[in-house]
Structure to design on (324 residues):
């Protein structure tokens, strides 16, 4: 009695098992490739895109710069600890975040050119 | 991420609690960001660890409870109807045997499987004390690992998040493929023998 009810499900179960196995294998292969691509990509791109939630110190850290340079570019006092986010700073200054962002990016560009003669530009272009 | 910068450790608590319940939130990324904020002196290390682990463990416990209370007797009734009492008892034995290592590893190494394992552990009535001990231990490893990496690579957390995400999913699928492969080999080996015995 049991044999009849079991035989087909066993074959079907084996098929499902094999399909699941192949799927898992393909998926792990996909992530292995993605891992490699990301590792290669990120090894040449370190700088995070500037966003409103970041503080000046955060941006300076990400771009490997002295916070002082950025603070002075934004006409902010350099000696004191300022942990406001860029979004807050923009609204306190009455400018748009985009305007603030381009000021910062211009300042980063200037500092980079001074410090390593455009080395990072060449790296990010590759 | 803005949420995390504004509300700090408590935001981390909420994100990890929901994340370990299975809500698709970038919990690992939140830990990396928290680590990088610690490195920039914007958050306190001890409170990040305490709130982070507490949140993750809370989510695990709720998942376990849902599995346990939500399926009260359900497994038995289903097993009886489908004539699968043997299968159920096999599953229960396997849960007790492999439970500790599964709970531990799915906290940090194979974290995408965590929420599912919580519910299954509850359904299979895996001993709560063991679930909790291994769960806390595993979540502590996870929080230390990701906050630590966030501190170390605080300049490039997005890169680290991408790479760790890929690595985690690769490991998850590789482990699943490995287990299924073993199962297939095992079925093949006993296949002919069991056919004759039927």
């Amino acid at each position: 009695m049991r044999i009849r009810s079991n035989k087909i499900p066993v074959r079907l179960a084996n098929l499902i098992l094999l399909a699941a196995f192949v799927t898992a294998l393909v998926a792990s292969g996909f992530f292995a490739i993605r891992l490699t691509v990301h590792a290669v990509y990120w090894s040449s791109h370190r700088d995070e895109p500037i966003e409103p939630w970041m503080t000046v110190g955060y941006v300076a850290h990400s771009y490997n710069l002295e916070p002082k340079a950025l603070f002075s570019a934004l006409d902010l006092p350099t000696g004191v600890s300022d942990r406001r986010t860029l979004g807050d700073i923009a609204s306190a200054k009455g400018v748009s975040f985009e305007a603030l962002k381009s000021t910062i990016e211009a300042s980063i560009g200037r500092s980079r050119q001074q410090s390593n003669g455009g080395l990072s530009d060449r790296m990010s272009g590759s | 991420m803005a949420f995390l910068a504004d509300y700090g450790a408590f935001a981390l608590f909420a994100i990890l609690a929901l994340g370990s319940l299975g809500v698709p939130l970038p919990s690992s990324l939140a830990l990396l960001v928290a680590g990088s904020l610690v490195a920039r002196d914007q958050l306190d290390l001890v409170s990040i660890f305490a709130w982070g682990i507490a949140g993750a463990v809370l989510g695990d416990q709720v998942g376990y409870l849902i599995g346990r209370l939500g399926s009260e007797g359900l497994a038995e009734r289903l097993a009886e109807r489908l004539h699968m009492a043997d299968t159920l008892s096999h599953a229960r034995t396997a849960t007790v045997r492999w439970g500790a290592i599964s709970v531990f590893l799915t906290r940090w190494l194979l974290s995408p499987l965590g929420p599912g394992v919580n519910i299954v552990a509850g359904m299979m009535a895996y001993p709560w004390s063991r679930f909790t001990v291994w769960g806390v231990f595993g979540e502590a490893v996870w929080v230390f690992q990701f906050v630590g990496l966030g501190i170390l690579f605080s300049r490039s957390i997005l890169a680290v998040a991408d790479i760790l995400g890929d690595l985690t999913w690769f490991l998850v699928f590789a482990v699943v493929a490995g287990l299924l492969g073993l199962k297939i080999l095992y079925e093949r080996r006993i296949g002919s023998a069991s056919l004759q015995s039927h």
Remarks:
- Residues 56-125 of chain A form one domain.
- Residues 117-126 of chain A have pLDDT under 50 and may be disordered.
